[in-house]
């Protein structure tokens, strides 16, 4: 073994040891975070009570057996007008001298609601004043209640938040449920207004806020004030996933220690989602994406033979049981515990990635061309980048993931003679290649295993590239090794000129005349790559088919997690087939099959790039995918072998 390769293994070992330390801390934090809030919407509860003929308090008392919190939204002018909380008078009704231009008289007949409205208006910095006589003395327009002069423009803002219904908050508390406040962002345009709006939320007794609408309070210019107010009032930020709110990502990055990831199925989507599908979504959210607040919408239609209340009670009990079956309990969720990657561990993991890159260079025959100063410089640059800014860490993590996913297959060289047990050799090699992929990918994401990445306030930007680059690297290397000039030069040099042979093979391939089947193959590969990219992520452009969704559900029911389709159904089986052909010393199409099989390794490494997913769950998912892929691959090899023998017999018969 060349000395550079020995040094590379030492560096890789040091990096893996550092990653093990960091990942063990991450696993400990992920295992301890087991509280989930199951939140209902108060307005939906009130509608359910109205439909079923009970009171809201009675319905809450029944629902509290399966829920932990109820969300109470800030009321609007329409909400308060519907309960007769106020009246408005223009200057035509009141003597003109008493109503300044641009103002309307707001008469608050209900004392409790009146205090709520006035407090909310003043908290948000809206100019209100008492009516006065022409000489400036106080004016009582009505013998009962309270009158205010309010800017007329404010009355036209239908989404203006006007505080919280004290009776609703009290009903929630009496039911033994926690309050989740839902502030409205309209017209909260200053630091003082932000503080006032969140102060109103705090006064409800809430410890979690989930902002209403398509933006967060303080967006776009005073988000720093929003973050400061959340800290001051001890409020946790319910960050909605899959339902982007303007300013939410910016706010979350400032308060990662207050973020609780939140999942909800929208009202319109819930009308076309079956209860069983909703249960699967909730389970997947808490198990796989670190969601700790489930905002559960009530069902709007009853089961056959049951009333709507009984249907919802049964449904919520199923949601609760689903969450508990995943090992969680209903409680006030805690934000993710603090976790950082210290500089020493970063430097060691950077050196480990340098070791992985050196091993890849050695497999290509380049490491032998590097002198020790070049090796030392590589290690220094990688270690320095690991302790540097986030961009450098992300680049190193991407480089490590791509290297880990491609190393095992680019190291494959053509065999000189057929192996006696090619299938067993192929299985063992695929297991070894996958273990190397997992190890180096874990080392790479160890660099990013801190709270901000676990919560999702910082994302690994190389997720898509980590799917595309490994198959491309394997394709380029294996195409060169399939060329005649590669073989000729290797035979001539006794296998000691790998890089020169690769360059010769690449030049020969580049000089091939392009044929129609080349174009068709290129288009097919590009289409497959594009489909793979658009189908990846939590919000793919093209979702899975109905059959695939049923398969996912079956896997989740059987083993607790679904393996990735591109691994167990495509990548691993093709990799096993390609290795089997390689060890049988068959050249035709082997390079193409191995390149397609690299998709399995790319997907396996990519699994660990989703850092908000618990590490052990990613490890389990990869293991299940590998085992299933091996099983399918063995069947594929058997079919290939049977077809090959059948064709051979047919040809022999014709001769």
Short description:
With 655 residues, the chain is of the alpha/beta class. The chain has helices at 3-32, 42-52, 56-63, 77-82, 111-123, 152-155, 166-174, 191-203, 223-233, 248-254, 267-270, 275-288, 308-325, 343-363, 372-386, 390-410, 422-446, 451-455, 463-481, 484-493, 498-510, 516-535, 546-559, 565-583, 590-607, 615-654, and strands at 35-41, 69-73, 87-89, 103-108, 146-151, 178-182, 208-209, 236-240, 259-264, 293-295, 329-330.
- Bulk shape: elongated
Q: Pick out the low-confidence regions.
A: none
Strand content: 5-15%
Write out the strand line-up for the largest beta sheet, numbering strands in chain order.
1-2-6-7-8-9-10
* Category from helices, strands and their pairing: alpha/beta
Q: How many strands appear in the DSSP assignment?
A: 11
